[in-house]
TrEMBL record:
This is AMP nucleosidase. InterPro entries: LOG_fam (IPR031100), LOG_family_nucleotidases (IPR052341). One of its GO terms (cellular component) is cytosol. GO terms for molecular function: AMP nucleosidase activity. It is an enzyme of class 3 (hydrolase). Pfam families: Lysine_decarbox. Its EC number is 3.2.2.4. It catalyses: AMP + H2O = D-ribose 5-phosphate + adenine.
Amino acid sequence: MSPKLPTNNAQTITDFLNPEPHRISEETSAESYKFAFDDEAFLTRRETIGIRFELELLKPEVLLNEHGIDHTITVFGSTRFVSREKALEMEKSAQTVDEKAAANKALLHSRYYESAREFGATVARYNATQDKSSNKLHICTGGGPGIMEAANRGAFEAGDQTIGFNISLPREQHPNPYISPGLSFRFHYFALRKMHFMLRARAIVVFPGGFGSFDEFFEVLTLMQTKKVTSFPIILVGKEFWAEMVNFQQMIEFGVIDEADMQTIHFVETAQEAWLIIQNHYQLS
């Protein structure tokens, strides 16, 4: 029996775009004669993956430079949290036991949404006091709902520029409406999106979240532990959540991390506490 090993375990851009067969055949002179940069079929081939990596890295870099954005604060957290207003609507309209339970959970979690929103507004108010764009810190998120929406929303409502790095997913994630015009980006590759989360980051603020938030958070920790990036504040909001989810002290005692690995991590409860850590670290006025 022949081994049934896959030739490629990743979804290619061709798989994602799902073009008609005649669009990728390039069997006619009309297709082969196209400029390479204008040939979608050619650009979606597996052989051009390196070019697509470069383009996904380059496009946001160019546009962020044009907008004068040098420094960001990247905010991670659950996509599932809603605003207090939305949670109260859910509570009011709940009829069944399950709906009431969902509304109660939404109300409980809405405090994190409102905290992220407050944090975004706090950063925006600081930026309003700065004349030079090189002194400003801009809220950057994954561009989706939940905590991402909340942080973008707080900055946007306060009149500041705010950035969203969205990603193509099987269930399409649409950009939230609080990202500034020209600063909403779409990625196919998680790796390139994560690079942009880090390239301008001067702090990472992580609210309670699921697999995606943990993936992003631990990648940042790994980069710092291995000295791939300069250390900066990593702020975890919600002390009870983080104490229950990750026993950092046990990791130290077990010998898999060092005390020094925890020096960049700060545990806080409020948006103001998070901002104070950043303010003190960079001696901001």
